[in-house]
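[Q] Does anyone have a clean structure-token version of this?
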Amino acid sequence: MPVLEKITTGWQDFRSKMQLFADPSITTMPSSLAIPCPHFAAQHCTSCRWLDRTYVQQLAAKQLALKSLLADFVVHEWCEPVPSPLQGFRNKAKMVVLGAAHAPILGIMGAEGKPLSLTDCPLYPVPMQALLQRLEGWIQQAGLPPYRLDKQKGELKYILLTHSRLHDQYLLRFVLRSEQAIPRIQANLPLLLADFPNITVISANIQPVHMAILEGKQEIFLSAAKHLPEQFNDVPLSIRPKSFFQTNPIVAAKLYQTAREWTQALQPTVIWDLFCGVGGFGLHCASTDTQLTGIEIEAEAIACARNSAQALHLKHVNFLALDSNQFQPNAEHKPELVIVNPPRRGLGMELVTQLATLNPAAILYSSCNALTLAQDLPQLKNYQIKRVQLFDMFAHTEHFETLVLLTHYSSPPHKE
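[A] Here you go.
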């Protein structure tokens, strides 16, 4: 089947196709899961849809699915998939606050409309599980009423928790309906910090809309610190409340290091990093003399990227808070390498057309959605696919990250 026809079948059909890559002998759930999870075993939480497969089966299925999507392209080198730890690999928890003020629950609405606590989810490291469990008790101590969407009452909507491995620190965000609960939070924070002093950054996000929207525009810091320091490989990075950060730090570090190794041979002097986030890709690929331009729509992420560039003593760096589709660059300094890391919707025709016009020697494409990746690639007609590698950022699900290096047909050979 031609790749474009595969794409038009849509995501749901692709998910059903991926089921075909599983071991056909498995017709019922095995007695043992890839990792022990009582919630999945009881079918109360099925977010990790592939937990009933061995990890070898999971990784093989993803690689086969990716090769199927790219079957109509010439790929010069297929690299081996990069595996994930099987549990305790997530650095971020997004918990819905359910129940009542006297018995709060962090998790999901389970069977028969009963709240289910997921504070013991095995994807989280054990210390994070302990903190989430303490937060349930602390919410009760503070008397914070969970928000009820059906009744449009209550205050606390979500708990968002992010961990930095560098200094074992946490960023804790309370998503609230209004500012009404902030004094109660502030009054009771000493109780929480006495048990978990490594909660370094604390903020309240105000989301007044009566809809299941994760966060609002207003962020109120309740701590002096406003960011967490983190480091992947030898590159300092920052985590702020509204800036995107990869949720699997072990695999993310390998992804960024691979990007560095693949692009070193190109020796680019001008790099553009589109959808740059906190700058992970661009900062890994730039050298002291590189002219690096990073574009990201979220201003907080750009602030993080600028801080990291300063810490690395990079002098020719310009990070801008703009929509990548609206970026109007200086034509005098065209890039030799363009790095793109778009959201799930992919690049789209407008941005792909701009890339074709720029005609850089190489494009490094990091994709979290292989469907839209396969949709974008045919539009880059002047480029060949030199390397493809799958990074299993999302173990036990059908999702994965793909890194693709494209080089222009007229570009000089790599300087190995």
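[Q] Thanks! Anything notable?
[A] The two ends are 36 Å apart (CA to CA).
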